[in-house]
Write a structure and sequence with these properties.
The chain is an alpha+beta fold. It contains two helices and eight strands; from the N terminus they run αβββββββαβ. A five-stranded mixed β-sheet has the order 6-7-5-4-8, with helices on one face. The chain has a three-stranded antiparallel β-sheet with strand order 1-2-3. It is globular and about 60 Å long.
Length: 152
């Protein structure tokens, strides 16, 4: 009986953690001369380089051996924080540097691909935008603000 209960618990946890992975299976990020393209499987949006005031890589420790990475895209003006593709990336936190905004896009980077992403961003982004690599507090990725979710 205990084995059956344990199997049901692990099965439920598998489904619970598998749903976000299943929904994100078609998501893609592309970097080119125009900017950073985001595709959620249903729609595509670009964050052009010319609307940014800064771009940097941030990381935080997750446990003893794992690091979480993100690309921080700091806009130079207002952003559409209710865009159906971009809203999950919007974060409102203390600016990462002087003259940079509180609202920015945080793009989580899959484990093991941070060097490829950094290389692509440094290759295509204008050099004056690069903010470098910085360590953050554990759990820096955070969660999207549900109040910014597009209506409809």
């Amino acid at each position: 009986m205990a084995e059956l209960v344990m199997m049901l618990v692990f099965g439920a946890l598998g489904v619970l953690f598998g749903i976000p992975v299943w929904h994100g299976r078609r998501a893609a990020v592309m970097v080119d001369r125009a900017g950073v393209w985001l595709d959620n499987g249903k729609a595509r949006q670009i964050i052009p380089w010319e609307v940014l005031a800064g771009v940097g890589m941030q990381w935080s420790q997750f446990g003893r051996r794992v690091k979480q990475y993100s690309i921080e895209l700091c806009p130079s003006g207002p952003i559409d924080d209710h865009d159906p593709v971009l809203w999950p990336l919007v974060r409102d936190e203390e600016p990462v540097g002087p003259g940079l905004p509180r609202l920015r896009y945080r793009l989580p980077i899959p484990p093991g691909s941070q060097e490829q992403v950094t290389t692509a961003v440094r290759l295509y982004a204008p050099p004056h935008l690069w903010l470098g690599v910085a360590q953050r507090e554990p759990g820096h990725l955070g969660r999207p603000d549900p109040s910014r979710r597009p209506k409809g």
